[in-house]
Amino acid sequence: MRIPLLLLTALWLLTGPAVAADISASTGQMVYVPVYSHIWHGNLDARGKPQMLLLSSMLSIRNTDPEDGMTVRSVRYYDTAGKMLREYLPHPARLGPMASTDLFVEHKDDSGGSGANFVVEWSADRPISPPIIETVNAYFFGPHSLAFTSPGRVIAR
Hints:
The chain is built from one helix and twelve strands, in the order αββββββββββββ. The strands form three sheets. Strands 1, 5, 6, 7, 9 and 12 form a six-stranded antiparallel beta sheet that branches. By secondary structure, it is mainly β. It has one domain. The radius of gyration is 20 Å and the shape is elongated. The longest helix is centred in the N-terminal third of the chain and has 14 residues, at 2-15.
């Protein structure tokens, strides 16, 4: 009887009620967001290399606070080796309550590689609900399509 009870407990823990994400208000963060300029797929060829599929990526920054705005201070794009390729914002950009903005990495731009990333820095005058920052990585050509999101992760407050 003990094993079924342990299994039921484990199942409940895995499938039980969802726990809300921490929405602690903040006045700013530095957020790391994965980007996939390309992904490897398929079988290895005669040289031991898989096939490469180029993807486009859209960085989405969404102010989730219904009352206050925020400022996007910086959006830096890094390659797989950690080399900064470019700053996407020449000047800080203001987002009003519930406003969004996006930036785009073209399909033909494979400079970032499979380990590319954005580092987004934002701030607010008062504590606000943290924004949702993620990329949508996509490939749409002919009958073939692929799309997935990559959520950002706070790396500094």
